[in-house]
Amino acid sequence: MPDELTHFNAQGQAHMVDVGDKASTKRVAIACGSIRMQATTLEKILQGNHKKGDVLGIARIAGIMASKRTADLIPLCHPLALTHVDVALTPQTDPPSIDCTVTAETHGQTGVEMEALTAVQITLLTIYDMCKAVDKGMIMENIHLLHKSGGKSGNWSSIK
Amino acid sequence: MPDELTHFNAQGQAHMVDVGDKASTKRVAIACGSIRMQATTLEKILQGNHKKGDVLGIARIAGIMASKRTADLIPLCHPLALTHVDVALTPQTDPPSIDCTVTAETHGQTGVEMEALTAVQITLLTIYDMCKAVDKGMIMENIHLLHKSGGKSGNWSSIK
Amino acid sequence: MPDELTHFNAQGQAHMVDVGDKASTKRVAIACGSIRMQATTLEKILQGNHKKGDVLGIARIAGIMASKRTADLIPLCHPLALTHVDVALTPQTDPPSIDCTVTAETHGQTGVEMEALTAVQITLLTIYDMCKAVDKGMIMENIHLLHKSGGKSGNWSSIK
Amino acid sequence: MPDELTHFNAQGQAHMVDVGDKASTKRVAIACGSIRMQATTLEKILQGNHKKGDVLGIARIAGIMASKRTADLIPLCHPLALTHVDVALTPQTDPPSIDCTVTAETHGQTGVEMEALTAVQITLLTIYDMCKAVDKGMIMENIHLLHKSGGKSGNWSSIK
Amino acid sequence: MPDELTHFNAQGQAHMVDVGDKASTKRVAIACGSIRMQATTLEKILQGNHKKGDVLGIARIAGIMASKRTADLIPLCHPLALTHVDVALTPQTDPPSIDCTVTAETHGQTGVEMEALTAVQITLLTIYDMCKAVDKGMIMENIHLLHKSGGKSGNWSSIK
Amino acid sequence: MPDELTHFNAQGQAHMVDVGDKASTKRVAIACGSIRMQATTLEKILQGNHKKGDVLGIARIAGIMASKRTADLIPLCHPLALTHVDVALTPQTDPPSIDCTVTAETHGQTGVEMEALTAVQITLLTIYDMCKAVDKGMIMENIHLLHKSGGKSGNWSSIK
């Protein structure tokens, strides 16, 4: 890993890092996070998958759409064309929560870690939005990168 | 609190809830969250406030700008005109982390909880982006609503 | 109705019409349209509502989100804060098609016809996108305003 | 053509389809549609091309700009860099209407059908917006893909 | 005028200034600027108004649309709903140039100076874009606020 | 240089020029501009770099973010993926002003002149926004392309 924050030039001023000479390679990033809630809230969400409103389906769409907006939201992030995004949502009962895992891929000169993390954040936020009328105390937590591959720095995993 | 998820109509289909008959009142929401990191990463950020790149200043701007994009990102969120947004960032040394607290305000028919939470998320993500070259294992956590006031449901605090 | 196209000034140059002196009133617009398809495509969509991918649920979300982007897309359209959007989708078997009806509302100085029509268009386009792998020949048709109320020009209906 | 809706994974959950292994080829799509109106409305538009406001010129620009926003509007659409967009508008007198034909091109891993169709939709909507003060009953119709080429599925035409 | 830069709080940190207690009044701002070019470039533009491509018509639309995006572009700018935007373009022959004057209006708690200036900038940039194939040396200059009215600070003019 | 404005087809109608057959080459553009102000305003900005609000740091971020939005703002501009953006800000005391120079780079089929110029414009506008409470008379001037390289038309400099 580099010793310095690369988003600043020699004068300490922010710039969009020059990636023009980096090789185009396949890039994959997997990120995850959770939203904790009351047991009754989780119950309402799970019912929704069957016969009422589909909270998880809508949150998944919001996450996918947000991944495409990443470079609009994160100031020094390079624009790139995602080739694949998948948002998996898994309910957990102890404690009551929804786990979110996002896989993002492209073929390009920069990684897709930010796209995967942005999708996780907006997916969880959308779950919050749709349930906040019944449970304002939900907590989003443990949002982090699980794995990345591709590029000069190669593979990285949060689990060694 | 209502008993049901209000973002769905009687047929269980998502809609943007009708707020046309709600009173326009002053709305305030305060949300918070943290990003945990290695001690050496925190050190680099804190140096940056003085003579190198200003990670926290850039993250603050990203959070404020994102709060204005909330209705673009969260599918069923009503568009509204924020009258005030403040992003406070506080370094913590044990464990090494940055705490983020956002205050959002408007005068209108819907609350600004989502605007405050979106600003927290994008502020933390921007810190991640700017430091990921040296620390990919940073974790965003404990993102939640602290307080809201205004509107029919009145005051709410996460601390009872 | 006026005799002239109001989006041009006396010199014939486009401008965003001055609505500053118009009264703020409740505005409602209802627009509709259809997408015609093969019978087997409709069948796949209807199965999706139950156990496979939810085409209609996703199209509904896309339509609601697009209604919030109307002023970004239509050059001379005034920005406004929608207070309610509802997208209703009804399958028809003869001919095989999906009907879309959108209700949009606000309280303001301009109407919401464009917001309702934009939601219809993007809802239908999203159905097209999700089914085009099996049916590229789908046709979007009969997209028009059904009804509007509010404002100086008062009520209008396509059915006299 | 595939037998299934490809925008869903094996669990029936929406994802952005993985196109990372598809070949980059030249992609062309041509889409069309019409807006029907009163004879006096058409007359006003045609006068505008000469000495008053230029409805068709503005609608053409709106369509081109919208084609660049396609991936922002259509949830599971891949972002791509268009290399060419052309919007042709042809007045018809019987019945009074404007025909719109859009050609979109890129060199990439996914097709540009959605970009061409989105441009048609927003071009027609902009004509509606600019003329609605004199003719709210205009109808958009017959919006469909005419032709596509490039990619694994090769050529397709609506006219066999 | 205040003595300090108001976009920073007492700690010198950027925030979106609280305008929640300001009165809603009618706000008008007029801004202007020019783009200087070769005489042959101006000639091509002026021909375009008659029989070839309409550079000025397209630039005017780009300026109006950009004014609606101001709060997306300028970090600490409050979102607001414009009620009127007019872009006037006047060719000058000595030196060869196009003058641009934009009037923006709203009724609200903050001024519309930034909206008027953003429209001027993007209008001029669009002229540059459309003519750069024949004249890369065009210069944009003298972009400033001419006049504003409304709000606590009242009237201001660049000409005393 | 070509003899005609290339953004129009043979009928004089605007289109997004076909660049599909152009070679992908490294593209660089450097653009610049200034904002003139009162001496006391410059002083406040320069103090800000040390202990108060960081006007220049925020303006730099706004410029970089705006460069990524260029194709959204300029109607006939091709979307492209920037690989590098750098915004340099230099205070001048006689007359009191801030000079802005932006370097933009990509590897692609079209140039990045518009991206560099858009970043200059929005950087200067953001300085205006942050200082307008104390100095509404600031003037943006001398905004032009300094240099470009890459593509069929090769190198170009404003200084011969």
TrEMBL record, chains A, B, C, D, E, F:
Tell me the CDD domains matching this sequence: MoaC_PE (cd01420)
Keywords of this entry: Lyase, Molybdenum cofactor biosynthesis
Highest rank taxon of the organism: Bacteria
* Residues annotated as domain Molybdopterin cofactor biosynthesis C (MoaC): 16-151
Presence of keyword Lyase: yes
Q: Could you tell me which Gene3D superfamilies the record lists for this protein? A: Molybdopterin cofactor biosynthesis C (MoaC) domain
Q: Name one GO biological process term.
A: Mo-molybdopterin cofactor biosynthetic process
Residues forming the catalytic site: D129
Q: Which reaction does it catalyse?
A: (8S)-3',8-cyclo-7,8-dihydroguanosine 5'-triphosphate = cyclic pyranopterin phosphate + diphosphate
EC number(s) reported in the record: 4.6.1.17
* InterPro entries with a match to the protein in the record: MoaC, MoaC_bact/euk, MoaC_sf, MoCo_biosynth_MoaA/MoaC, Mopterin_CF_biosynth-C_dom
Q: Does the keyword Glycoprotein apply?
A: no
Give GO terms: molecular function aspect only. cyclic pyranopterin monophosphate synthase activity
Transmembrane region(s): none
The pathway to which it is assigned is: Cofactor biosynthesis; molybdopterin biosynthesis
Query: Binding residues for substrate, per the UniProt record?
Result: L76, C77, H78, M114, E115
Q: Name one Pfam family in it.
A: MoaC
Subunit info?
Answer: Homohexamer; trimer of dimers.
Q: Which family is this sequence assigned to?
A: Belongs to the MoaC family.
- HAMAP family xref list: MoaC_B
**Its job:** Catalyzes the conversion of (8S)-3',8-cyclo-7,8-dihydroguanosine 5'-triphosphate to cyclic pyranopterin monophosphate (cPMP).
Q: Which PANTHER family match?
A: CYCLIC PYRANOPTERIN MONOPHOSPHATE SYNTHASE, MOLYBDOPTERIN COFACTOR SYNTHESIS PROTEIN A
Name used for this protein in its record: Cyclic pyranopterin monophosphate synthase
